[in-house]
């Protein structure tokens, strides 16, 4: 089963234009080597035109206007205030491999609808789906407005973030997507770009090796097993029969062979779980890399 990915980062007003340039692929030069610029034309938005940021308006200006319209206070926004939270939404590579492009778009439309209903479609200026990387994912901006105030701390407190991780996957499941929530109470921490780049190749190599191991994994050598035979009455004369033993298509396992087989089956299961875990971690790291790069510019 695949897991839902919904990770959030906070950005000040002075940072959002650079973020927008990355998300909208306004440059052909990217530090993320997994971006295939020849496929960037396949990226798309799922925000209805009514709520979408116009192309001729900068993201910073659009957010400023929305904040001015919604805040009760006439005071200027603090320079260090969080003006935008960006969510990276998606799942693992295996999940999207089983979907057509149309189904993938429907998945992200459903994901956007959940956030729009919860935080207001008017507060989501963009939700861009990237199809030009290894795994499809969506970058979605949410302006943290709550009760006439700009406050990411109040809107996305610890309780609310836990609710997102619990309720968002359940909503996707209700829409018939084969998805689960991530591990509850996970102690995984976010990595820096340097840490990510150190372990990403190793994770990929391990995944490929596990895949090869699974493909060539022989549970047991059938040629060395004793075939099962069953008694069968065979007619040998007009009024005469005798018992003969006939071989079936089954094989007999000794207690020792059975235990060995059981251990190997459990081993294959553990390998599959490890493979899925490695890929989930890599997908989460991939989704965060763009945000980490922006923070270090």
From TrEMBL:
* Coiled-coil intervals: 193-220
What keywords tag this UniProt record? Coiled coil
Any one GO MF annotation of this record: DNA binding
GO BP terms, alphabetized: DNA recombination
Q: Which InterPro entries does the UniProt entry name for this protein?
A: Mob_Pre
| Similarity comment text for this entry | Belongs to the plasmid mobilization pre family.
Protein name, UniProt field: Recombinase
Species in which this protein is naturally found: Lacticaseibacillus paracasei subsp. paracasei Lpp126
Q: Lineage of the source organism?
A: Bacteria, Bacillati, Bacillota, Bacilli, Lactobacillales
